Amino acid sequence: MDPKLYYLNYGERRYDTHRIEPYAREHWEFQAVLRGRIGALLEDGRIDWGERALWAFAPGCGHGWTGQPGRVAEVMVFHLSAPDHLLAGEVERRGGMLRIGLPAAARAWIKAQGEQLRGDYANPNECSFLKVSHLLTGLSLMLLSGSGYQPRLDVEQLGRERVDRALYWYRQNLERNPAVERVAGAVGVSAVHLRRLFAMVAGQSPKQAFQAIRMAHARTLLRDPRLTVEAVAARLDFADASSFARAYRAHSGESPRARADAG
Questions:
Q1: What sections of 123-179 are H helices per DSSP?
Q2: Which CATH number does the domain housing residue 226 bear?
Q3: Domain termination site, one of 95, 113, 146
Q4: Claim to verify: residue 137 and residue 166 sit in the same structural domain
Q5: Domain that holds residue 257
Q6: What is the structure's pLDDT at 151?
Q7: pLDDT digit string (tens) for 202-243?
Q8: Would you say residue 259 has pLDDT above 60?
Q9: How many domains are there within the chain?
């Protein structure tokens, strides 16, 4: 589902004289105090005060707003569709509300996003969802980081990501036939660790996986009538056509010349 911006408002507020009584919103509310100090009125009667702060409230978590007598605050308010499950889970764990302090750079970013989205809120277009997605992702990261959230280390997922990155990097550099050690360094692990990850995730060694990629590319090149077997061998960094032919035959069960002749 595309992210949606249901409500956008910003500017100076006098919550001391224009108090908002608690009620439950239909969507997620994010309210940032860019200047000044305000308080979130909670349904149990408590007031959660914050200066230069950002709140996130889950749908159904009743709340209102108040301010300090005689003080004006500048705020930015967004009502948005559901954020990433990480933030949603963290807010739920904290009872439906999360507040963090906002450094100057974060306040400037939020203000810029609101100003940029003003036109999209009034007149949505085909690119609006990208801007809203950017806003929602940024707010989620701010809140998770500012709240001290500690990401769980999913060893299996991390292993898959490392293997995918290694395979991708090899594909981008396969005509140089980089060694396993070079690929491992490019993705930030040792060669020994990369071999362990490939065994765990792919059930084969990096060398076997890279050779399969190399041979698949060779098969594509051999279909080009302008390229000789010798030229393909050179493109793939084989010492000579004979060593290429042996490797190709061992992998595919046919000679490269037979593949080239078949087109």
A1: 128-146, 155-173
A2: 1.10.10.60
A3: 146
A4: no
A5: 155-262
A6: 80
A7: 999 999 999 999 999 999 999 898 999 999 999 998 999 999
A8: yes
A9: 2
Instruction: Report H helices in 191-252.
Output: 191-201, 206-222, 229-235, 241-252
CA neighbor of 222 nearest in space, from 190, 248, 196, 193 = 248
pLDDT mean across residues, the chain: 93
Dist CA 235 CA 89 (whole Å): 51
Buried b / exposed e across 66-80, counting CB within 10 Å, b at 16+? bbeeeeebbbbbbbb
Backbone CA torsion sign across 10, 12, 13, 17? negative
Q: Return the structure tokens found at 51.
A: 């200066």
pTM of the model: 0.72
Q: Are residues 129 and 202 in the same domain?
A: no
CB of 9 closer than 8 Å to CB of 115: no
Domain boundary among 105, 126, 146: 146
Q: What percentage of residues in the chain have a pLDDT greater than 70?
A: 98
User: Sign of dihedral through CA atoms 61, 39, 138, 27?
Assistant: positive
Shared domain check, 244 and 136: no
N residues, the chain: 263
- Cα distance between residue 84 and residue 65, in whole Å: 25
